[in-house]
Protein: aldehyde dehydrogenase (NAD(+))
Organism: Brevundimonas denitrificans
Amino acid sequence: MTVPTAAAAAECRDILTRLGVPASVWSSDGFEARSPIDGSVAGRVAETPDLDVVADRATAAFHQWKRLPAPRRGELVRLLGEELRASKDDLARLVTLEAGKIVSEGLGEVQEMIDICDFAVGLSRQIYGLTIASERPGHHMRETWQPLGPVLVISAFNFPVAVWAWNACLALVCGDPVIWKPSEKTPLTALATQAVLDRAIARFGEAPEGLAQLVIGGREAGEALAADPRIPLVSATGSTRMGRAVAQTVAARLGRSLLELGGNNAMIVTPSADLDMAVRAIAFSAVGTCGQRCTTLRRLLVHESIADALIARLKAAYETLPVGDPRGDGVLIGPLIDEAAGAAFDDALMQAEAEGGEVVVGGTRGAEGPGVYVRPAIVRMPAQTAVVQHETFAPILYVLTWSDFDEAVAMQNAVPQGLSSCVFTDSVREAEAFLSAWGSDCGIANVNIGPSGAEIGGAFGGEKDTGGGRESGSDAWKAYMRRQTQTVNFSRELPLAQGVKFEV
Ligand code: NAD
């Protein structure tokens, strides 16, 4: 493992200044902004003092914003895309410094923001409804999509900026103001993104005050905003524990929630699979982002006839994985976000061994020092025990074997979460069965592709404990709008539906 070099925090402050974040964000008593690379602290960031004012401003902004034509709203998002392109390197570097992602993943995250801007700009001219045949003469019916109101975006540390963009770009073209409560572990990337957005807003010229607000705060701030009836939609990304709490709060006031929660993603490897491809896909999806993606591969379900050979190849690949300062050339695995994540990694490995697991490779910590660096682990398990059922947000891959394909699909589905899944096979029968109604029960199902690294064009999200929400592409935009069925009578009669007679 390579040891961190230059203090990450100092670099953070330089980038923030370059991106135009005002010095007034620093405070002596706010949230500590630290880099997981070396634990260095960039400073403390002031918490947003008055959430009531935030909700009021968003409500006022809604009344103006919804009156602008959607293609005009799309122009703001187009400008945001331009500003993001101009700031891509700095913002990506900040993602690396604050979330610990390797350089290409930091750049990839900002590219994802740019891609969703492009998608949303196109969408701003394609917010279609329906026309519906009316049973009444001289009437027409249609279904229209109207702006919904302020949208609260609660985001997790591991995609500190892309998740905001997925939500905000769609919400803005749909006519909704956005309130963003980022993870308390990544306030700097949020402040930087807000500065980039503010530049786009200044160029746009007619955005109401309060259209896109950033709330710096912890869990309590998220709880308070989720309870606010002025916010019709809460889009929350994070742990299942958080999603359960948010869902109940929002449901209690009959609001709408869009939940993107934890995953426990599996790959089924069949005897006909191309093992060269499978090994590469497994390595990227199991250890990329140090196992801290919602779509990280956590369960490898291998046919018993090829398990020993595949595990031997993975063991060899894992032994040479470059772990270290994510800014370093050739490094593929950066740090875990904090010591609590390191403790969860250690605890899960101990529990796995207690439940009959055998650590094949990895599982150790880096040398003492700042930053939590671990060697990704592969653990052979006798069954899908309690530890396998649980999402540990760290690079641990559990390997299990099967003898019958239907049994493998049943194993893939037999966990509480339902985000991403995949099969490696050259059999069209197995591939199609995996994608059928009795196949994978997840929101994402892939063939000969790992579970991680989705494109923005598809709807993203999962079932069961993953929360059921869909974001990003396809028709995910409908969650950010209010559906209205409209009937117009252009005749001189007043016929009632279902033949009802009511003469007065
Ligand atoms: P977390 O649940 O600890 O925090 C996420 C966010 O929720 C933070 O902003 C936090 O302040 C806020 N929060 C926590 N409790 C809250 C409450 N009761 N009410 C309102 N807000 C609350 O998650 P994390 O550790 O930052 O992120 C890791 C988790 O996120 C993993 O489980 C991962 O799978 C999941 N995740 C899911 C997706 C997805 O699209 N499905 C994407 C990224 C991350």
